[in-house]
Amino acid sequence: MASATITRPAPDPDPATGRLGRWSWPTLLVVALAAATLVGFLVYPTYPNYDSYYSLLWGRELLHGVKPSFEGYRTPTEHPLAVAFGALLSLLGGPADRIMVGATLGSFVVLAAGLYRLARASFGTLVGLAAAALVCTRFDFPFLAARAYIDIPYLAFVVWAAALESERPRRGTAVFVLLACAGLMRPEAWLLSGLYFLWCLPPASAGRRLRYAALTAAPPLIWMTLDWWVTGDPKFSLTHTTGLAEELGRTASLSDVPSATVLFLKNLDKVPVFYAGIVGLVLALVLAPRRSGMPIALLVIGLGTFVLVGIAGLSVIDRYLLVPSLVVMVFAGVALGGWTMLVSPRARRAWAVASVVLIVYGVAYTATHVTFSTFTTELAFRDDSHASLAALLHNPKVRAGMRCGPVSTPNHKLIPDTRWILHAGPDEVIARSDARQRRRIGRGVAIYAANRLSLLRSGFTSGDDSVQDTFNSIPMQGFTWVAATAYYGAYVRC
Asked: Which of the four, 300, 334, 418, 437, has the lowest number of CB atoms within 10 Å?
């Protein structure tokens, strides 16, 4: 029944396949997205997030012949490929942090193109364009890219692996290489590689099986070897992540996972897209079940991985549902552009009209629920606060105070930025919230937030309502004010 109502995959009837000279519309749109991303990179200078700054720091330590400080106070989980990339960028010196942001923004463009390829291979060009448009307008994703979150290049690797496999089943080496790169950034990709290995195993020759096995095993072996070399514990990343999740209150019971799944997907995709994705999933299963295989596989594996994350006691945060959220966008694209798969002109027109209504509703919902100035304010804060911190730390009086002792910050949040700006080691910048450093914070330079915005962002520890957490943002007795900028101030005691 379904085969009589939809077109075959090969002759794509979508109007979006038209060309303008030598360029196809999808190619032109990718170029336009790249140009807009470059403009945004230049107009709104932003800097890496907490985790990515540590990748730069650890890479710099490697270049200096020092083992990376994985075991520092509330350090994030290390990611081998990110550390290697950080080492490469560290060769460029001070601008490396901005270049890391630029590279991640470039990864976002690659991600959008990959999502288009995946959706197009499954459901046609118009669905691909709709899915790509949705990821560009889900502002959480470009905002992650603007802060150099590792999630964006990770998603780009996974989505392109899925797209290539969808275009040519059991493609083999190219897909394994992409998944191996993803597996060196996030361990969730290990499951994808393992399942793909089982899928490719039966028809493969002995030589290919050996190559596939090596590419599947390489990421966890490299990860554990790096952990063992640096810390002496091959399972350090797993135990460290679990402990940090408990300390920061990010764990959840298994019974909380279903509700967290729905909540996080709605937050990432936004409510209209979430429900459009459900509708599109049903339509895809009814009209094109065979062509739905890859997106559904990604959705099921992604949701299953999130459940396993909860069971393992790791951080239960929305970023672990980014892959399923992208698949929801693909199926939402089906709800918007799936009419191109139909043969009947009347059915196509009816569905197209319904799609227009859905688009109008989505635009109206966004206009009434999103304050666009919030994003520009956030981006401006990233630039201004970083510049303010750098100006403070380069102040001669602050530099002189560093001879008296370490630089201390209220908690862990400003440590990587401060270390990067000062080219400082882990013992030279400490957190006043770290009980192990209580004896050392009595001398040196103490950094404090100087306005409400910086106080809320960096002065307090999430989930910590103790009096001590408040005291960590109040100037200590015996310290003398020496300098201040718009966002931060410095006190010194020798």
From this structure: 300
What mean pLDDT is predicted for residues 447-473?
84
Residue 259: predicted pLDDT: 82
Place of tokens 């379904």: 2
For residue 320, what are its two tokens?
């672990």
Measured between alpha carbons, how far is 358 from 356 in angstroms, rounded to an integer?
A: 5
Strand, helix or coil for residue 409: strand
Q: What is the dihedral of CA 138, 143, 145, 151, to 10 degrees?
A: -70
Q: How many residues in the chain?
A: 494
Exposure string for 98-111, b = 16+ CB within 10 A, e = fewer: bebbbebbbbbbbb
pLDDT band of 175, cuts 50, 70, 90: very high
Q: How deeply is 90 buried, as exposed, middle or buried, from its count of CB atoms within 10 A (0-12, 13-18, 19+)?
A: buried
Residue 456, Cβ neighbours under 10 Å: how many?
10
**Residue 336 Cα to chain centre, angstroms:** 26
The first and second tokens of residue 51, run together, are 């985790």
Distance CA 57, CA 426 (A): 10
Tokens 């390829």 belong to which residue?
117
Angle at 185 between CA 136 and CA 459, to 5 degrees: 75
With cut-offs at 50, 70 and 90, classify the pLDDT of residue 314: low
The first and second tokens of residue 321, run together, are: 């549902």
Range in 130-144, 206-220, 302-316 with the lowest mean pLDDT: 302-316
Q: How does the average pLDDT of the chain come out, rounded?
A: 88
* 256 and 316 Cβ atoms separated by less than 8 Å: yes
Please give the residue that has the higher pLDDT: either 306 or 173: 173
Q: Is 490:484 a contact under the CB 8 Å cutoff?
A: yes
Give 93's pLDDT tier (boundaries 50, 70, 90). confident
CA dist 402 and 423 (Å) reads 13
pTM: 0.91
232: left (phi over 0), alpha (psi -120 to 50) or beta: left
Q: How many angstroms separate the Cα of 250 from the Cα of each of 153, 158, 265?
A: 24, 25, 17
Q: Which two tokens stand for residue 474?
A: 């109040």
Report the chain's terminal Cα–Cα distance, integer Å. 83
CA distance linking residue 410 with residue 302, whole number of Å: 37
* Type of residue found at 358: L
Tens-digit pLDDT profile for residues 346-355? 988 999 999 9
Tokens 């939809």 sit on residue: 6
324 vs 54, 171, 201, 252, 426, CA distance in Å?
27, 22, 26, 19, 37
Query: From the CA atom positions of the chain, what is the Rg in Å?
Result: 25
Residue 440 CB neighbours (<10 A): 15
Q: Residue 483: helix, strand or coil by DSSP?
A: strand
Q: Which of 149, 162, 463 is nearest to 320 (CA)?
A: 149
